[in-house]
Amino acid sequence: MSAPNPEPAEHVATEGSPTEAVLSDKARASLEALRSEIAKAVVGQDSAVTGLVVALLCRGHVLLEGVPGVAKTLLVRALAASLELDTKRVQFTPDLMPSDVTGSLVYDARTAEFSFQPGPVFTNLLLADEINRTPPKTQSSLLEAMEERQVTVDGVPRALPDPFLVAATQNPVEYEGTYPLPEAQLDRFLLKLTVPLPSREDEIDVLTRHAGGFDPRDLDAAGIRPVAGPADLEAARSAVARTQVSAEIAAYVVDICRATRESPSLTLGASPRGATALLSTARAWAWLTGRDYVTPDDVKALALPTLRHRIQLRPEAEMEGVTADSVITAVLAHVPVPR
């Protein structure tokens, strides 16, 4: 798999006990097979696929941002079809209510009692399509679910299934009728992945497939089949948890996040939660590339998608053309790399 940020790490065999190594290798092979399955429907976008896999390994959530027509929704649907997991989709609209997401109490006239009717959030993989088209009141209905992995209705907390991942999409160029996500909600997303326009060759491939009868609404006809399931994810997560992090790497992550707080281009730098998120994603990427220890290259590879939505630019910096990605790139260039 290719990294969400193209700085691949060196590939070295994973160590461990024979049983752990076998389970780890099997889980890694299953997750790597996701790319070939998703490629049956989505051309390119390897970095976004890798980011979704990293989020699954870290029990995190993903925000996919891209202009209309770059297969954001199709990408998540193809991922869902490649996994033996329960999935649901919610189209976020201005009139969507919080109970439409979380569920609500329903009165049963036969028993004269209220019973809880679960909403679509009670699933393994929730596709929150165009999340910025619904008001903050409904957006906030996901806050508890994303952070605590539970939903509280009428004072009663109800646990969500495990694994649980929210994959939300948003359009960065359309502001009419949209509601930007507040910083508190953005911070709940482990990764913010940008889905770019395809290259000329990939776009030709897309048109060729459509000319040959490909229907993006019919993934079964595309031949996508489940290649990984909960057992593979559990084995992979156990292997990621055994991936070693040296004191120097931990200090490197902290130095990167502290440098963002001191940047003159920012009003808000990465928080300690951002630092823990970067460490988690770097560990997952290290394991995916076949190692049981984290290197500085792993941290660099995941810095952009992990931190770009956790920092806030000064208005004057935005007017000068500075972007979140350019600030993080500059930080990575100046923070000393451990040897």
From TrEMBL:
Residues 1-21 are annotated as: Disordered. SUPFAM superfamilies: P-loop containing nucleoside triphosphate hydrolases. Residues 58-199 form the AAA+ ATPase domain. PANTHER family: MAGNESIUM-CHELATASE SUBUNIT CHLD (PTHR42759:SF1), MOXR FAMILY PROTEIN (PTHR42759). This is MoxR family ATPase. It comes from Streptomyces salyersiae. InterPro entries: AAA+_ATPase (IPR003593), ATPase_AAA-3 (IPR011703), CbbQ/NirQ/NorQ/GpvN (IPR050764), ChlI/MoxR_AAA_lid (IPR041628), P-loop_NTPase (IPR027417). SMART domains: AAA. Coiled coil: none annotated.
